[in-house]
Amino acid sequence: MKCSNNTLKIRIAQLMIFVMLSTMLTGCNVIQTYDVDKPLSISNLINLPIVRPSGLAKENVVIPYDAYVYDVPNKEYEAGLLINETKQDVVCAMNPHKRIYPASMTKILTGIVVMEAIEDGTISLSETVLVGKPIEFNEDNVGVLGLQTGDYITIEELLYGLLISSYNDCAVLLARRISGSVSGFVDLMNAKAAELGATNSHFVNPHGLHDNNHYTTPYDLYLIFKEFLSKETLVQIDSHSTYDLTMHRGDEKMVIPLMATNAFLSNAIEMPTGYSITGWKTGTTEKAGSCIILEFLSEESGERFICLVSNAKDHEALYNNVEDMLKEIY
Predict the structure, then answer these.
(1) Cα-based distances in Å from 203 to 104, 177, 311
(2) The pTM of the whole model exceeds 0.70
(3) What is the C-alpha separation between 237 and 41, in angstroms, rounded?
(4) How many helical (H) and strand (E) elements, i.e. helices and strands, does the chain have?
(5) How many CB atoms are closer than 10 A to CB 45?
(6) φ/ψ of residue 308, rounded to 5
(7) What pLDDT, in 10s, does the model give residues 19-62?
(8) For 205-251, how does the pLDDT look when each residue is reduced to its tens digit (9 = 90+)?
(9) Conformation bin of residue 263: beta by default, left when phi > 0, alpha when psi is -120 to 50
(10) Alpha-carbon gap, residue 26 to 34, rounded angstroms
(11) Exposed e or buried b for every residue in 150-165, given b needs 16+ CB within 10 A?
């Protein structure tokens, strides 16, 4: 059967449209290149379908890519978020999708992976772990509990050391116990981050000491932190401003007092009036600056707010900026 000229033109046009759409959807574009080692930037692509875990957008506040919702003339931090979780609204956000170094805020993901191992029966809170080989770090002034070969300590006490005083050797020992190696544990961390939708993150250790390939974004940390808050044991640990950690070295029982690194809880800085804190984690390295993520509960309204400040210039500025962000609520 012969086609008329008009029919032939229509079919050619349809074919051209099909080819163009196929090119856009598969990324087969000679101009656009994609480095598999870097997160995909979608800002210059049109109508590209994005696949996320089912229900992710319903469960979390959605902030458009490259959103710059909030501007402070004399800001002293690089990126941050304040989200009303009760109303599912953004109170303020600055550079929410900017790549940042999380420092010890990494440990919220470490805690999640540990709790999942407890939930599936791989380990238990009461299990005693033996330090089988030295735990060493390639930099000075690293915060550690001081675990030595031959020491033994329970999983629960390691979690207290991890979250309350942010001890990096606790993170390593937990990783070794669950996965046999730090690298195996990191694989679990990255898989969990991807499952939660934190697709612009990449972790290379369980503690957050600096590595150029260890990064996240404020929004990704928000997604991870929400999962952290769903773990009752982790939130219960975070409720302590102090704690007496117990471990054993040979026949000696050692009791080590812990102090929360969160200055609001340690009373080093006055708690914002009208709020209490549920979960939290601080972080500090030279490259990451001073960081914190925490959930506030409004005593007046009962509303819950998740706040993150990244790369504040110093400790004092960090907490001042948190308080300034809270003033934006009403």
Answers:
(1) 12, 19, 18
(2) yes
(3) 37
(4) 9, 9
(5) 13
(6) -135, 135
(7) 444 444 444 333 344 444 544 444 443 333 333 455 666 678 88
(8) 999 999 999 999 999 999 999 999 999 999 999 999 999 999 999 99
(9) alpha
(10) 11
(11) ebebbbbbbbbbbbbb
